[in-house]
Design brief:
Elements lengths: L5 E4 L5 E2 L17 E4 L2 H9 L34 E3 L3 H4 L6 E3 L10 H14 L4 E6 L2 H13 L2 E7 L4 H9 L3 E5 L3 H15 L2 E2 L6 H6 L1 H10 L7 E5 L4 H15 L8 E7 L4 H7 L24 H13 L1 E6 L1 H15 L5 H19 L19 H4 L8
Parallel strand pairs: 6-7, 6-9, 7-8, 10-11, 11-12
Antiparallel strand pairs: 1-2, 1-3, 4-5
The structure holds pyridoxal-5'-phosphate and zinc ion.
The site of zinc ion has 8 residues, from loops.
């Protein structure tokens, strides 16, 4: 039995039952900041016993994932990815304690596999046989693969700007792929109207408890891989912000259970042509103004982050952190540098995090030396489709 005991509102403290696939909104004050709470005492006992008989994937942490009976499901093995110590990339910048959480090792090579695994397991448990998702690319592919294995029909809405091979890969898994001539925020609206008209389940990303909770397994894995220690910093490239939203749920839970002695500072990196969070952060605002994306890195092109930004802003205020942007060119350069120094091929969306690290690093050495201290930033990465995702070969020349 792992389902949340209750949902609790971050704003007013109201507690209410968890109902799968009902958008998590506080019944008292209508806030979207409701968080799932589990039987942490029982889970902590399991952890202290070494979490025996658990698989080496995200289901290792099934006690804090929103499913009634994971053992009854044919679970999709996402997660359980390696944590690499940076050999040359970070040491070349003067840092010896930097780690990469290598999400290329997931079933479709991105951290969205975690989201797909938990969301599709929840669909299975609740008898849902057809669903709709809008995506900037990687979530669509991840859901398509997980749905294929579960025998769930999936409708995928992607903008026509998404690299062709992502569309093809989703179609290969049997998803119905709809290309929308518009940006991602418009595509999301069309997907939502379609789901409503056909009365189908729409994946709600950051407002969906299974999607959000799935990402916390990244935090649990990192901490376990570091010998039950938290890194000083966590760094990630961000589009809509679901990744760090969920990851921090995990860090906070472990902190509250007394398993780690701090919650890491958060570094959010966006592509300069789609950086509504960075603009708001630098202006000291807790809400982001939507923008029309203008970046080649379509995977990171959420122009309207909505409430996710406010949540991430709050995290940076509570635990410390920064939001920075990098140009597309800086991302491509970082991609080359990473490949040449670590032998790791990642796609441009991931390279954004690495470019952000380089930039902050440069700024830190110029201005505020204490900024990075002894860091262990971690970032998901993915190797496939980097050529066409950057529209040509010039970045390698
Ligand atoms: C490789 C990669 N990095 C980062 C992101 C940003 O995701 P989010 O902002 O939803 O956490 C994505 C989104 O698909 C991605 O595929
Ligand atoms: Zn409330």
């Amino acid at each position: 039995m792992a389902a949340p005991l209750y949902l609790e509102c971050n704003l007013c403290g109201n507690q209410q039952p968890y109902v799968p696939f009902v958008p998590a909104i506080c019944q008292k004050c209508e806030s979207q900041w409701v968080e799932a709470h589990y039987d942490y005492e029982a889970f902590k006992r399991e952890i202290l016993r070494g979490i025996p008989n658990r698989p080496n994937n995200l289901w290792r942490f099934q006690d804090v994932l929103p499913l009634n009976d994971p053992s009854a499901l044919n679970l999709y093995p996402a997660g359980g990815t390696p944590l690499w110590h940076s050999n040359r990339f970070a040491p070349d910048l003067g840092h010896s304690a930097v780690y990469f959480k290598d999400e290329r090792y997931g079933p479709t090579s991105s951290f969205k596999d975690r989201q797909a695994a938990v969301a599709v397991a929840a669909m299975n448990e609740n008898g849902i046989r057809e669903a709709v998702i809008a995506s900037t690319g990687n979530a669509a592919v991840a859901y398509a693969a997980a749905c294929a294995r579960a025998g769930i029909k999936l409708w995928v809405f992607m903008t026509s700007l998404v690299p062709q091979e992502k569309l093809r890969e989703a179609a290969l898994f049997g998803a119905e792929v709809i290309r929308v001539s518009g940006n991602y925020d418009q595509t999301k609206q069309i997907a939502s109207q379609f789901a409503q008209r056909k009365n189908l389940l729409l994946d709600r990303g950051a407002s969906s408890v299974p999607a959000r909770e799935s990402m916390k397994t990244i935090a649990y894995e990192i901490v376990e891989q570091l010998g039950w220690r938290a890194p000083d910093w966590y760094i990630q490239a961000v589009s809509g912000g679901l990744g760090p939203l969920g990851v921090y749920q995990g860090f906070k839970e472990m902190f509250n259970m007394g398993l780690i002695n701090k919650v890491p500072k958060l570094a959010i990196i966006q592509a300069e042509g789609c950086a509504p969070m960075v603009h708001a952060f630098k202006a000291g605002k807790d809400t982001a103004t939507p923008i029309i994306p203008d970046t080649r890195i379509i995977i990171l092109s959420t122009g309207d982050p909505g409430k996710a930004y406010t949540y991430l802003w709050n995290l940076t205020q509570q635990y410390g952190g920064v939001m920075e942007s990098v140009t597309d060119l800086e991302a491509y350069e970082a991609m080359k540098a990473l490949a040449k120094s670590e032998g790791m091929a990642v796609e441009p969306a991931t390279a954004v995090a690495f470019a952000g690290f380089q930039n902050c690093q440069n700024k830190a050495s110029l201005a505020k030396m204490s900024w990075w201290r002894s860091i262990a930033p971690v970032t998901p990465s993915r190797s496939k489709s980097m050529f066409s995702a950057t529209n040509g070969q010039w970045m390698f020349t």
